[in-house]
Amino acid sequence: MKLVVIGNGMVGHKLLEQIADRPDLDVTVLCEEPRPAYDRVHLSEFFSGKTAEDLSLVAPGFFDREGLNLKLNAKAVGIDRTAKLVKLADGTTVPYDKLVLATGSYPFVPPVPGRERPGCLVYRTIEDLEAMREWGAKSKIGVVVGGGLLGLECAKALKDMGLATHVVEFAPRLMTVQVDDMGGRLLRRKIEALGVTVHTQKNTSEIVEGPGMGVGGRHKMVFADGGALETDMIVFSAGIRPRDELARSSGITMGERGGIQIDNHCRTSDPDIYAIGECALWGGKIFGLVAPGYDMARVVAAQLKTLSLGESVAAQPQGEGSTALQFTGADMSTKLKLLGVDVASIGDAQGATPGSLNYLFSDEVAGHYKKLVVSADNKTLLGAVLVGEAEDYGSLLQFALNAIPLPAHPEELILPAREGGAKTGMGVDLLPDAAMICSCNNVTKGALCGAIAEGSTTIAALKKCTKAATSCGGCGPLVKQVLDAELKKAGVTVLNHLCEHFAYSRQEMFHLVKVGQLKTFDAVLLAHGKGRGCDICKPAVGSILASAWNEHVLKPKHQSVQDTNDYYLANLQKDGTYSVVPRIPGGEITPEKLIVIGRVAQRFGLYTKITGGQRIDLFGARVEQLPLIWKDLVDAGFESGHAYGKALRTVKSCVGSTWCRYGVQDSVHMAIFIEERYRGLRSPHKIKMAVSGCTRECAEAQGKDVGVIATEKGWNLYVGGNGGMKPRHADLLATDLDDQTLVRYIDRFLMLYIRTGDRLQRTSTWMDNIEGGLEYVKKAVCEDSLGIAAELEAEMQKLVDTYECEWKKAINTPETLKRFRHFVNSQEPDKNIQFVDERGQIRPLSKLEKNPESVS
Amino acid sequence: MTLAPRWTYVCRVADIVPNTGVCAKVGVNQVAVFRLVSPGGEDEGVYAIDNFEPRSAANVLSRGIVGDSSGEIVVASPVYKNHFCLKTGRCLEDETWSVRPYEVRVSEDGLILVREP
Ligand code: SRM
Ligand SMILES: Cc1cc2nc3c(=O)[nH]c(=O)nc-3n(C[C@H](O)[C@H](O)[C@H](O)COP(=O)(O)OP(=O)(O)OC[C@H]3O[C@@H](n4cnc5c(N)ncnc54)[C@H](O)[C@@H]3O)c2cc1C
Ligand code: SF4
Ligand code: FES
């Protein structure tokens, strides 16, 4: 069946995604814009640094599949409904069996004389934003015409560009549709406090040449009330109009004030033509939000799929009573942050329902305004307005959508919690299974509960499985509440199982491996697990085997459990190339070795960068180049830096007493000693260390898993520090240690962590979670309270004694070298890896820059 | 009219380390070929899907870890860890990232052959 989709906007694209699994549909997509679908909802993030590529909604390779033909810069200009042809602007035609109009809408620009002056812009496409940015750079003052949702978002963009910003609104208040008078007043005050000037009840009568010579008054806006405003650029955001011109010119039924009329199946008056998204008119309404559009896309996708299966049109659902997927309207409730102000509007926000009653709460000091609209019998919530604070949006929305009976005192839902008394909330248990929790992705409470019952017992797993909370994120807190409530009901307490294959924590697994003398993943799986294993338990067990027995990760029997980084002994990069990090102990390096690194990079054309860990990373190596690169490095005396492993990374040092006038100990010497002692050590997560030569702490040792700081008398030992996502200051474990004691304490500390740490748990979180905390660790390490200190030291010494450089071993083992090639049956390199020059070095081509032809 | 299927010789079964993959050139396509072996050591067949991983747009699937997810045999992309069913190419996280499966066969003397699509 030939399907033509006009428009590849958000909704049109959703439709394509829904039917992507149906190669029997022969689809042509006409996209007027120069690029395929992107995320208009997050368009303003373009100003905070997102690129067009970041905003793209198109999964890589999506349009490469057979039977899906995307035409960019292809505007449809006519529909011949008798011949079933769509005419394009370039004169060509495309035939269809079924046609979907997903043409969206255009920004309405009021017919004000002067509106075509340069610098008068709109706000809908990436090109519009590029123009705004260009004009913003040469302007001082900016005006937004329209004080609705989009207008205020646009005002933020102008403000962020540093312009004196004005909002001009025709109505007496801001956000007329969503908020009421009092809410609008508060919103205005808050926005003005941020430095945006708001003009309400202003009707622009013309735009003329301003007095400013160049910047600072290029235009003058003249208002009907006689006032005027000088500005350099104007953005119109005065509402949207459906792009219904194609339907109109081909005689399809339209709404009185525009919009393509559709029924519950999203069919237009021509049964072979559907309309979805912002161009469609349902029940006399245009839905200017993306979620209803997505619903429409799903409705049409379902019909197309049945049709293409060859079922007769007659068998199609026709009547309203049909059980097939239908579009039956949409909730227009919204929650937004506009210029940093929380604003939410639910259902009948204006109290238009006859007999409805209001509860109002206003706190002008804190700047909060809340209103509930309830039914005449005070039993159901009809609508709400929240300005300044909108935390309760999620639960109020559920009350309204599911007609959950209100508590005896509905006002408590919006009154601030009194000290001591907990706030009347809505237990998620009250929600029916049909309650829509994530409207972006159409996930109900029932669907969430089902997924939880089937084993998605973390937020991450739930997101993955149901897609809830993966778009706007607004439903996140509610998803979490449902999850917590369900887990509580199930009496779940233990959640530290490695994965579906092992019902043990990493600590238990470590113990089982040691006690059972298990030496391979298969042995561990047969003894304690089920199934085949996965990408979670395999590397975890691999790491345990390495910590327990120090077996070379390259041994064939361990090969299949290694992550690609450990498999190729290098760090995988986004384009499938790898990076190479030779060890530079303590950050100390001779000029000769620096030259070697430079030569190797030159010879293989690699990108070089100094890392945050005091060493040098070489990027852009292909698998087949890795052994050659390492041959050169090993010959010059370099060793693996284990940047690819959950292992010791670097021991950072400061220059210390040898050169520094304040240094009290030789920190470089100690750093090198420590790095060489623990190099290659496999652990639950990576380990970083540092040694500073005095209390000024130039090596930042207190941000490391193990930090050593010199004192007049010896060394202070710190543990459990972390930079990264959640920085943590290290805890002082012992003071004024001599060299030998320092090393013995580090041995004990590390082995204890390796034995008991969880998978991917840094020492910082391990310290935070270990029962007894710092005191326990201190006693175990410094006082041997567990009576295992000698054992821990002996285990570590064994690992130190059996260390070997993985790369040196690899390049001397022909069996291992075999894996370093891209194709098993050809010498060719991967042609999909492509670079360009940037600042004198290579960089990988981005997905969009790559020629799709080169994929294969 | 369809032409007679073209089968490309990839390598011997023994050339693939149990439960890992290799990448093969099959016509113009890059194909990830995996050899499955049970924990007990019995050979459990050979599977082939695209080597191209749509989410990262990189040719890397042959380098992923093989395992199972709720009983389904999958490979995890080494880049973003999304999973692909080895039988169908379906991506478990998001079907729009799914890839193509290929017909694969092992000859009596242990040669792996993949059919061009
Ligand atoms: C290359 C480097 C950035 C650079 O150009 O400077 C880097 C690169 C990566 N870092 Fe890092 N980190 C690098 C220094 C750091 C530092 C600074 C430091 O070590 O002093 C930190 C903060 C310190 C810390 O870890 O406490 C750091 C905190 C992280 C984190 C967050 C860890 C955390 O506990 O919060 C991650 C994510 C993770 O490990 O889960 C990460 C993960 C990564 C990964 C592995 C992400 C990935 O999976 O691709 C990057 C790949 C490394 C590679 O070589 O391809 N990187 N990363 C630095 C390598 C240092 C080295 O010589 O080995
Ligand atoms: C700045 C901004 C912020 C927004 N914020 C939100 C928000 O927070 N929440 C929310 O729910 N919604 C928001 N929206 C609205 C949301 O973006 C729209 O509801 C959604 O994009 C509608 O999708 P669509 O596919 O119907 O239309 P569009 O995304 O506009 O796509 C229509 C496409 O069709 C193309 N087209 C039109 N005519 C033709 C033709 N003749 N031939 C070929 N192609 C054609 C157009 O060029 C366009 O690419 C926002 C919109 C904007 C502009
Ligand atoms: S930490 Fe001390 S010794 Fe090291 S560089 Fe700083 S001041 Fe000098
Ligand atoms: S409601 Fe937007 S992600 Fe769930």
UniProtKB/TrEMBL annotation, chain A:
Residues 645-783 form the Nitrite/sulphite reductase 4Fe-4S domain. Siroheme binds at residue 698. Binds 1 siroheme per subunit. Binds 1 [4Fe-4S] cluster per subunit. Its cofactor is siroheme; [4Fe-4S] cluster; FAD; [2Fe-2S] cluster. GO terms for biological process: energy derivation by oxidation of organic compounds; nitrate assimilation. [4Fe-4S] cluster binds at residues 654, 660, 694, 698. Pathway: Nitrogen metabolism; nitrate reduction (assimilation). Residues 573-634 form the Nitrite/Sulfite reductase ferredoxin-like domain. Residues 333-393 form the NADH-rubredoxin oxidoreductase C-terminal domain. Transmembrane segments: none annotated. Pfam families: Fer2_BFD, NIR_SIR, NIR_SIR_ferr, Pyr_redox_2, Rubredoxin_C. One of its GO terms (molecular function) is metal ion binding. Keywords: 2Fe-2S, 4Fe-4S, FAD, Flavoprotein, Heme, Iron, Iron-sulfur, Metal-binding, Nitrate assimilation, Oxidoreductase. Residues 1-284 form the FAD/NAD(P)-binding domain. The keyword NAD does not apply. Residues 436-484 form the BFD-like [2Fe-2S]-binding domain. PANTHER family: NITRITE REDUCTASE (NADH) LARGE SUBUNIT (PTHR43809:SF1). Belongs to the nitrite and sulfite reductase 4Fe-4S domain family. Homodimer which associates with NirD. This is Assimilatory nitrite reductase (NAD(P)H) large subunit. It comes from Panacagrimonas perspica. The lineage of its organism: Bacteria, Pseudomonadati, Pseudomonadota, Gammaproteobacteria, Nevskiales.
Automatic annotation (TrEMBL), chain B:
Keywords: Nitrate assimilation, Oxidoreductase. The keyword Oxidoreductase applies. Residues 6-113 form the Rieske-like [2Fe-2S] domain. GO terms for biological process: nitrate assimilation. InterPro entries: NirD (IPR017881), Rieske-like_NirD (IPR012748), Rieske_2Fe-2S_sf (IPR036922). GO terms for molecular function: 2 iron, 2 sulfur cluster binding; nitrite reductase [NAD(P)H] activity. Gene3D superfamilies: Rieske [2Fe-2S] iron-sulphur domain. The keyword Coiled coil does not apply. This is Assimilatory nitrite reductase (NAD(P)H) small subunit. It comes from Panacagrimonas perspica.
